[in-house]
Every structure is written in C-alpha cells, then in structure tokens.
Amino acid sequence: MISQSLHDLWFGFGVAFEGHNLMWSFFGVLIGNLIGVLPGMGAMSAISMLLPLTYAMHPVPAILMLAGIFYGSQYGGAIGAILLNLPSHPPHAVTCLDGYPMTRAGKGGTALGITMISSFFAASFGILVMVFASPLLVAISFKFGPTELFSIMLLGLLAGSTMSRGSPLKGIAMTLFGLLCGAVGTDVNSGSLRFSFGVTELGDGLELVAISMGLFGVADFLININRMTIVTSNAKLSFRDMRPSMAELKIAFWPMVRGTLVGTLFGAMPGTGPTITTFIAYALEQKISKTPEKFGTGMIAGVAAPEASSHSKTQVDFIPTMSLGIPGDAVMALILGALLIQGIQPGPQLITEHPDLFWGLIASFWIGNVILIILNVPMIGVWVKMLQVPYKYLLPSALFFIAMGVYSTQNSLFGIWEVLAFGVIGALLLVLEFPVAPILLGFVLGPMVEENFRRALLLSRGDMTVFVTRPISATFIGFCVLLLVGVSLSAFLASRRGRLAKAMALPDPSLGMPANMKLSED
C-alpha cells in the first residue's frame, strides 16, 4: 500500500509540474495570499469571483487554481488577523485573540514567523495523511452520521463557550447569542421565516463575512477611533526580530503538534468546517496550560495551535469533499461545485477514474506551500511596515476593503449595513468586557447543530437515548460532561480562592478589643 501510494504521488508530481498546471497553481496561491491579506476579503469571495473562469479551463488546472486560492488565503488571513485584528477568513478569528496582542507588544514579526512555521508543518503533515491514510479516513468518515456530528459540534460549542477570558457565563451567553443569530432566516425543514421581522433580505440569514468583519474589524476600529498611530509603530522591524528564537520555537512546538492532530482529526469528518477546528485547538491549549489566564494577552501557543489546526484541516478537508462529495464548509462547497461544473462526480471512484486530478492536486499542495514560503519570507517586512500606517489613513482604507469584500459576496448593500450593526454591537460588548469570539462559533455551528439534531431524532423516531447508545456519539457526550464538570469545579475553586483572599485582605473588625470580648462575641 505504501509503495503504491509513493508511486501515485510521483505520478502526481509529474502532473503538477506540467507548465500550465504549475502556472495556474502559482496564480492561485498568489491571488489567495493577496486576497487573504486584504481586510474583508477571503477565499470565498475570490473563488466566487473566479469560478466563471473555470468554465473554459481543463479540470486539473482549474481545481489546482481554486485549491491554491483556498490554502493561500489561509496564509494571508493570518497576516491580517495578527497585524490588524482583521480576520478575513472566519477561522482566523481565534488567531486575533493572541496574535494581535503580540503585535501590540512589538512581537508581530515573531507571531508571523510562528504562523508560517506552524502552517507549513501542519500542511505537510496533512498532505502525508492524504497520501497514506486516505482510504482509512474515508472508511472512518462513513461512521459519522447526524448523531455523531451533533455530539462533536456540541463539544465544540461547549469548548468555545468556556475558552474565553473572564466569566464562563459570559462566554456561554455570547455563544447563545451566536446560536440565535444563526437561527435567523428560512427554516430548512418547514420553509418558514424565523426572526426576520419582515425584512426580506434576512430570508437567507445573516452573512458570516459581515458578522466576522463587524465583530473583529469594525468593532476594534470603533474602540480605537481616537488613536492616530498603531501602538507598536516604534517596534524593531529588523529581520532578526521577525525570526522566532529557539526558546519561542520550543514553546510553540507541542501546541503546533497538538493543533495539527486536532485539524487532521476534524478534516476527516464531513460537515465540520475549519472554524470549529481552530476554536477547539485554542480551547485545548488553554485547558492544559499552566497559565490559562494569560491566554488573550499574547501567548505563542494561542497562535501556533489554531494556525496549525487550520492548515492541517484545510489539506485533509479535501478527503471527504473529493471522496464522498461532502464539503466541510462554504469554500469547499464552491470547489465541489467547480468539480460538478467540469463534469466530475466526487465519490469513492474519483481516485481511479481521475488519478491525474486527485494525485496532481495532492502534489500541488506541497508545491503551493513552498511557493507561499518563498513569497512570504521576504514580504514579512512589508506586512510589519503596515504597523506604521497612521490610523487616519488605515481606518478608511480598511473600511473600504471591508465594504467591498462584503458587498462582493452577495452583491447587496444590505451586507454593509450588517457589518455596521455588528461593529457597533461588538464595540459595546468589548466595552462591557464580553468575549465576542464565541458569537462567531455559535453562529457557524448553530444551523449545523440544529439540522443534525433534528435529523438524528427523525431517524431514531424521537428517541433521545440515541445520543448515548451509539459509541462514537456517547464518547463525545462524555467529553461534554467532563468539560462541564471541569469548568464548574474550576469556577467553584476560583470563587473560593477569591473569597479567601478577600477575607484575608479585610481588616479584622475585632482588632483592639479585649480577648474575652472576642470570645464572648464568637
């Protein structure tokens, strides 16, 4: 099996290195990287705009180009999230939590270096998984029905709710708010409108891009509207300062490994997008950290783990899409549509019927990731130089790109109003010290959680015990229970320590009284 996989991979490199295939792969990663850097733009917008171009192209270069845009935007999206707190792609919303504080502390270059190393390591591991374990992962993915998908998404919601700094209750409240936002629009089963309040544009639900840009981009600008220059404009910008030290690499190594494994696990499961992967990878690092309270203040692990999980997920995500025809998120759905446009039916027979497409795509992943490193290493200085742009120029430019990117997704001005509304809401929540990241998680997972929950009950004829009688589902439900118990115990112990500290800090009201009076009062 291994020798056959290596032989097929060698054949794939021959396909990927063909002149026109290599050209379109380079074009895809270049456009994806540039689009990812721009605030408000992302892989979904770029692929949507370039999808008509694939109509007249051969299937292999068309898919190589679209795939290059997808994982190229992952690199670029991390740059915007770290330097400007603008996640152009929803999975990078988690990277903002610690990446942007590192930038404000003068370590933006270090965060970018950690991101590049984690991304390449995770992508390489994901490619190896695709090469050697694709048949096994496809067999495992068949075991995940609506019951199992609901259980694992429930675990993702609980982990995301409790991952933020501050009160877990605030995190849960923001997750519920996100779930409520995800319920807006047309009910898939009944076809009736929910929470649209008579607004026709809300029939298709709220826009993910608009919510992401509003909560993380516009809200930050509104909070810092009077700041004329970026705080770290006087930070050192030499190439040496942009390279992570050995101590920093040592700190990032195990989070990078754990994030890669999380992304690989979720990549094999159809119907789970990269957003839940980054949230769970971040939550895992915070739970096992000796200093969880420091997450959100510029922790290297908070950058390495989610970025590694995102890139390994991106690579492995092609397995259920290509082998089962089940996309992991909206971007993979667009790539799936491109395959159907080319007359290629995704499924178990794709590898044997179109080996040039499948193995050429896998080989192009490695080529594309090497191209991205070659492009980004000399350009890191350019991205860090962006820190010196005064806010009076940066603010209107970023808002322009945000508006343009949101408008391009649906060609509607209503999306821009959504960005403004969620920008104001996000600013108010930040002032009140509520975490905004769980809102995005609840919004993304809400519709899928509801759909799989209802489907599981429909198949079991309303039997709720199906979630604990199926082994895989019961395992994830058990993890949910352990997480709730752990969070409750941690909150109780923290409250108890706070009461003890407060009691020790307060002066004894009986000081100065005679001893016999103290005893009599006791």
From TrEMBL:
<keyword id="KW-0472">Membrane</keyword>
<keyword id="KW-1133">Transmembrane helix</keyword>
<dbReference type="InterPro" id="IPR002823">
    <property type="entry name" value="DUF112_TM"/>
</dbReference>
<feature type="transmembrane region" description="Helical">
    <location>
        <begin position="139"/>
        <end position="159"/>
    </location>
</feature>
<feature type="transmembrane region" description="Helical">
    <location>
        <begin position="251"/>
        <end position="269"/>
    </location>
</feature>
<feature type="transmembrane region" description="Helical">
    <location>
        <begin position="324"/>
        <end position="345"/>
    </location>
</feature>
<feature type="transmembrane region" description="Helical">
    <location>
        <begin position="111"/>
        <end position="133"/>
    </location>
</feature>
<feature type="transmembrane region" description="Helical">
    <location>
        <begin position="419"/>
        <end position="445"/>
    </location>
</feature>
<feature type="transmembrane region" description="Helical">
    <location>
        <begin position="208"/>
        <end position="230"/>
    </location>
</feature>
<keyword id="KW-0812">Transmembrane</keyword>
<feature type="transmembrane region" description="Helical">
    <location>
        <begin position="357"/>
        <end position="384"/>
    </location>
</feature>
<feature type="transmembrane region" description="Helical">
    <location>
        <begin position="62"/>
        <end position="84"/>
    </location>
</feature>
<feature type="transmembrane region" description="Helical">
    <location>
        <begin position="472"/>
        <end position="494"/>
    </location>
</feature>
<feature type="domain" description="DUF112">
    <location>
        <begin position="22"/>
        <end position="441"/>
    </location>
</feature>
<dbReference type="Pfam" id="PF01970">
    <property type="entry name" value="TctA"/>
</dbReference>
<feature type="transmembrane region" description="Helical">
    <location>
        <begin position="390"/>
        <end position="407"/>
    </location>
</feature>
<protein>
    <recommendedName>
        <fullName>DUF112 domain-containing protein</fullName>
    </recommendedName>
</protein>
<feature type="transmembrane region" description="Helical">
    <location>
        <begin position="171"/>
        <end position="188"/>
    </location>
</feature>
<feature type="transmembrane region" description="Helical">
    <location>
        <begin position="21"/>
        <end position="42"/>
    </location>
</feature>
